[in-house]
Amino acid sequence: xxxxxxxxxxxxxxxxxxxxxxxxxxxxxxxxxxxxxxxxxxxxxxxxxxxxxxxxxxxxxxxxxxxxxxxxxxxxxxxxxxxxxxxxxxxxxxxxxxxxxxxxxxxxxxxxxxxxxxxxxxxxxxxxxxxxxxxxxxxxxxxxxxxxxxxxxxxxxxxxxxxxxxxxxxxxxxxxxxxxxxxxxxxxxxxxxxxxxxxxxxxxxxxxxxxxxxxxxxxxxxxxxxxxxxxxxxxxxxxxxxxxxxxxxxxxxxxxxxxxxxxxxxxxxxxxxxxxxxxxxxxxxxxxxxxxxxxxxxxxxxxxxxxxxxxxxxxxxxxxxxxxxxxxxxxxxxxxxxxxxxxxxxxxxxxxxxxxxxxxxxxxxxxxxxxxxxxxxxxxxxxxxxxxxxxxxxxxxxxxxxxxxxxxxxxxxxxxxxxxxxxxxxxxxxxxxxxxxxxxxxxxxxxxxxxxxxxxxxxxxxxxxxxxxxxxxxxxxxxxxxxxxxxxxxxxxxxxxxxxxxxxxxxxxxxxxxxxxxxxxxxxxxxxxxxxxxxxxxxxxxxxxxxxxxxxxxxxxxxxxxxxxxxxxxxxxxxxxxxxxxxxxxxxxxxxxxxxxxxxxxxxxxxxxxxxxxxxxxxxxxxxxxxxxxxxxxxxxxxxxxxxxxxxxxxxxxxxxxxxxxxxxxxxxxxxxxxxxxxxxxxxxxxxxxxxxxxxxxxxxxxxxxxxxxxxxxxxxxxxxxxxxxxxxxxxxxxxxxxxxxxxxxxxxxxxxxxxxxxxxxxxxxxxxxxxxxxxxxxxxxxxxxxxxxxxxxxxxxxxxxxxxxxxxxxxxxxxxxxxxxxxxxxxxxxxxxxxxxxxxxxxxxxxxxxxxxxxxxxxxxxxxxxxxxxxxxxxxxxxxxxxxxxxxxxxxxxxxxxxxxxxxxxxxxxxxxxxxxxxxxxxxxxxxxxxxxxxxxxxxxxxxxxxxxxxxxxxxxxxxxxxxxxxxxxxxxxxxxxxxxxxxxxxxxxxxxxxxxxxxxxxxxxxxxxxxxxxxxxxxxxxxxxxxxxxxxxxxxxxxxxxxxxxxxxxxxxxxxxxxxxxxxxxxxxxxxxxxxxxxxxxxxxxxxxxxxxxxxxxxxxxxxxxxxxxxxxxxxxxxxxxxxxxxxxxxxxxxxxxxxxxxxxxxxxxxxxxxxxxxxxxxxxxxxxxxxxxxxxxxxxxxxxxxxxxxxxxxxxxxxxxxxxxxxxxxxxxxxxxxxxxxxxxxxxxxxxxxxxxxxxxxxxxxxxxxxxxxxxxxxxxxxxxxxxxxxxxxxxxxxxxxxxxxxxxxxxxxxxxxxxxxxxxxxxxxxxxxxxxxxxxxxxxxxxxxxxxxxxxxxxxxxxxxxxxxxxxxxxxxxxxxxxxxxxxxxxxxxxxxxxxxxxxxxxxxxxxxxxxxxxxxxxxxxxxxxxxxxxxxxxxxxxxxxxxxxxxxxxxxxxxxxxxxxxxxxxxxxxxxxxxxxxxxxxxxxxxxxxxxxxxxxxxxxxxxxxxxxxxxxxxxxxxxxxxxxxxxxxxxxxxxxxxxxxxxxxxxxxxxxxxxxxxxxxxxxxxxxxxxxxxxxxxxxxxxxxxxxxxxxxxxxxxxxxxxxxxxxxxxxxxxxxxxxxxxxxxxxxxxxxxxxxxxxxxxxxxxxxxxxxxxxxxxxxxxxxxxxxxxxxxxxxxxxxxxxxxxxxxxxxxxxxxxxxxxxxxxxxxxxxxxxxxxxxxxxxxxxxxxxxxxxxxxxxxxxxxxxxxxxxxxxxxxxxxxxxxxxxxxxxxxxxxxxxxxxxxxxxxxxxxxxxxxxxxxxxxxxxxxxxxxxxxxxxxxxxxxxxxxxxxxxxxxxxxxxxxxxxxxxxxxxxxxxxxxxxxxxxxxxxxxxxxxxxxxxxxxxxxxxxxxxxxxxxxxxxxxxxxxxxxxxxxxxxxxxxxxxxxxxxxxxxxxxxxxxxxxxxxxxxxxxxxxxxxxxxxxxxxxx
Length: 1962
Prior knowledge:
This protein is an alpha+beta fold.
């Protein structure tokens, strides 16, 4: 049975539980659970991370923890009763854990590892706390470490700053907001501003001395030297080195390193140096023999110097190598370091070339205790401490020092009867009064233990030696009296014995007889002569002698003769116990000399402060002793002396001695009667203030009043204790009188000098310190009244600038901070005075920092939930006095410009924050009663209105993000809670006072604006928080956004008809609120839009304003990342439901639909823009949005903005052509006018003309970069016209040159033709603008289908590629997935004019093939009906799909949507016809190229011939005969008669071409391939016989053959003609065949399917252009597939365009070997070398010029067109216009057709052009027309019409039209065209040979044997000659409309079929 738990309430999961049992709760290790019930080893409860899911789990999986329960029962809350630091650690580590893993994912390795270490540290520290074995101090230390690490991690991860008090988290509800602000600010400041340490330490470690000439032991002495003052500033660090230059005691590390402590910041400057003196111990001369002398001396070796400033830059721990120098003369040794510093190079040099001192130096910062903690390893190994000379900057009480520093300076000695100077050594001893030598009190330096005697170094032969060696004598105080120092002087012999002879001594006593020590300074001591055997152990013999020359000169009684020899020392005492001051000693011994008391008290002020504080207690005892002795006589003097001592302790050097004085007062002071005298003297001074002229002394007295009162109070307490409280009233009266005098003095206004005001200021600054003393003797209320009266007596403010006012405020501040103010009783008395002064200062906006501090302190004392009566009364007073001025102050300081200095800015922010915290504290304390009183206190509505406007404005300021640092979420939430509470109170006032007739727009607008920005705050967006943080916020405050949203809705409903004032102004703000992803908030706010629409409809009959505003704001808000798909659906559903019953429902639905559609596009746009790289999705999305703004919304500004966004995307993706077209959209909106335009986007303010000019130039540049030069030329002309009209010839010239350069680029530079791909996007998971739509995309350069498909799959990684080309069904459309269907399509150029014109270079044609394409084609083969296994051709149909785009490619995007698709089915017969046409065209091209030597390798022709002949023999073409020529087919398809005849004609034509091809092949075939050729010839005869063709007539001679523009076709009436491979002379004219690969863009318009069929017939696996090694050079009417349309290789039936998934596997292999692709062949194969000139022959041919198609002489039947369906036209004349009606460009300009000049004469000369493979020759273009020749022969089909090309269009005879146009009409036409006598000889004049051309003709066969010319089939005939056409005019010469991209075509359907051309009679 489940029973509720009593104690088991809270636990931690210690093992993961899957929850697989019924009702099981899944838990992970580390989860915290709240337990509700238990039963048999199971608990029921929930995980705190997800409290909504409850379940059961085993009790053994949970570790129970102590917890306390609040609200027992259903809604109980469990709080763990553990240390708050532990709780915080646990929750923080959980949050960090998730983020830590994300750091790894984001590859932030550095932070990842650092955080890992910190987390481990925190876990270790957590264990220590949990164990609970730590001492109190250690626990504090651990918690400090924990919180420091938690704060660091939170800061690094961007988490919130946690307010803490004593290491524990603070609940903001438990403290006042001002206190919370201070805690936050303290932690923030601690984090931001590193504390500048004033204490520094230098760590020195000696490593070694590197020198070549060592061999003796060394002493190394470090010290710090001030080069500015030329004196050492530290003691010495002394170190001994062995003979190898290494430390002598390696086992004692404290001997090798030292810490120079207590360096102030002033010591870290460039003129402080580290000096190192090195002394060697050995022979006198470094080069002496070893056995010369056994005695060792200390001798100078070298010196090194380093500036301490050099360490500040690096602070490196690496070893430094210091150069060691030696002085040139030993006498300079004492100042060698100064010479090195001053760089006096002449006085020193290097000791050796490689001498160097290796040391490690490091500067450490902070106090010594901090250093001990941070560098514990250094101290644990031992380190010697080297102090500064003398006391440190701050003298600490209890510091015991008694150090005498002696510097051995110099000596002056006589020769002593020797010829050379002496080698003097000084030995020093300390001798105590008994005559014994003191042991171990001479310190050479830290690092070396003290010694008993000292030996100076010896200077060689020097009677005036200078040593300057500093020694420290740490002699105990008790040894000082009677002790003296003795110096003995010896001469050191350099002889073999090396003896030292004593020749004199000096001494100096340490203390004088009167108790004073040896004074600091230099002393010249007398050198007393003596002998070697003199016994100096008996001190009595010499102590009576004079010791100093100064004493001697002053003592005239001495009869001793002055000696010439002298010895100088400098002494300096650093002692806390001994003094050198006689006056101090006299004062302390006042009882022995009572007559000197007055003098001693007077001299006290002259004594050094350090001497006084050393003997502070003794001095104070002395003063109060004198006061007790005779208060009348000495009272005033003692008082002054006491004031001097008290003020001395104010000095920063001595302020640490204040506790010493406090201790003295508490424990040692015994003057029970002193208070009377002190009060009396103090009152006397206060009474004299107003009269005294000099106030300095009085100010000193007032400054010391705190301690004077301490003495008075302690004295009175001692008196009361002694007497049982006598004279109480008398004492109170004295105090009252004293304060009356004070009040009088304070109430005086300063007149004149201001000395009085200075005294008042001094009094006020020290007065608050007196409160606590008075409280020891008086009641709280008494003291409070006393203080109130005193502060109230201050004069009113007259000059606020007066310094006194600031001091008054500081006094108020100290009062508020004092103990007195904490008591509620006294606080109520003092508060009015405090508020009065604050009010005055805030009114004048002065001393704001101080005011803020005072106010903060005032509110810190008022806790949040204090409902005590006293607190409520205080709030009443504060609200009445300060609320208004507080609001004004915040408004004032936030509207000021922020100061520039960083320190000033910090203060500015602090003061703003503090005032804000004060305001929030006050508002949080206010209850209903306070708000009601406040609102009632306003007399008029204007006052209330001003107040509300003011407070709303302040709230808006408080909500600003910059108000608090970004990680102060705690503070922001508290502020928001206060704001929303206040707004709820004030909204009632708004409703009651400012509605209906009193309506005030401004105040309501301010209210709504505040509410909106409140909801939009970043810190309230709970969705962005971690789950734990979100849970905490919701528990504490709820979702404040919903509360405010409900309030907005409520207030809006109250407005009534006044709502119209806020439409449309509030639409944007409310829309922003609804975009917040909070369902409740959205449900509340969205209906307001319905209300707005309704009111707008009532007012103006529509809601255009609402619509416009909604649309404008949606764009900007959604681009900021607001809104989502859920919002779109909610917006749609809520509003549609709301408007169901409205009369204006239809227009409302339309508006909602528009807005919803816009949202869809904006959401797609935003999602796309999140991607990293620019891809098609981004561009497509932007295009969709741009078009929506233009077409549906007509928002021009938004439209232009998105034009530029799209332009930037294109530039980034290097789509320069698309970028140009995009910018053209903006250009079209502008005109060439002088209208001024405002600054917009990146454009400056300028005229419309200049902006359009700028755009034109940018567009031209992009067209140039995109190689779309034809379009650039048009724009060049446009802008040139403008320059010309303004006579701006300079720019005109530049523009013409630019235009010329574009023409050059067209002719000279190669352009790649892109491939086009059709892409279908199916499924609901695609963005809206792609969903279930199909597009055609222009591929990148060199991009094939596989690469494109991979790119699309990369852009849509979740998409599935469909493996077939069929249209998908509805299930795919509705699927919750993404399907991509991709295949290649063939572009169908709309304009054929340029492509059909002969002689136009391929460079030019290539542009028109792939630009301005609206239509694309795709062919798919399939079998209809029963498939014949014997012959598949019978049922092989082709489905031809034509796609029409909404805009032409290229355009503003690389892809456009398909607007319309048409599907036509081609019958097997039509398919076969097209296949043969294409194969014939391919053969002709290869033969032509071989004949004109355009190919160096004959293999392509060989393979093609082999493929066709072999296929024909083995069934290829014969399969067509079996399929379509059989009787059954002809009878069952009577309508196909003409088509069958056409197929038969093509077969015969193919046979003719093959025969001619074999003839050419025989001429060029290499020897090793002759057998293959023979085989081909044999097979060809077999093929002919299989086709039923007899031998060609022997009488037929080979005629000159020319393939002008199409495949050769036989006349329907003619018999096959035999052909000869012999070449003929060439007339060098340019022909379309001058460029290779005519087969690729043939007049028969190969589709991709047709290309495949060609491949099938030949058995090749590549498309013809790839197989046969030819440059893609288009012929006249080419509509062939691009090179991407590589067909699948099939062995039997023709296949579709490449990779159709419908093909069976057996169709996917080739019968023949494939050739090299163009990418695998050398360029010589692509650009063939010209034929030798000897092969160029001139030939004639009978021909006739063709008439234009639109000949008016034709009869109506002749003009009729057979309505065979065709999707393209033969001619690109009238119907293929590239200009829209408005004159805007659809396709770039083409040269107009040349005028027909050929005469219809029978005999005209035909001139063949010179084919040039990519030749740059610029010649006039000559086009040719084939001339039909009548020829009768027994053929398969009779009465076949003759088809020919037109002169004007350049369309070949084998045009696509001919495939189906085999009507009776054609027969009639051709019968008219046949001439009876066709076989005439050469006649007419021949045109002369053009010598400059060097390229052979395409096809020319010279008849040799036959006597008369045999007419060729018309397609192989040479066209008639015509006059060369005039040069074409410049593109678009006659066009005036601006260039326009993507003009919509009026009819995307099939163009009307043109009339057949009329050919003149022969």
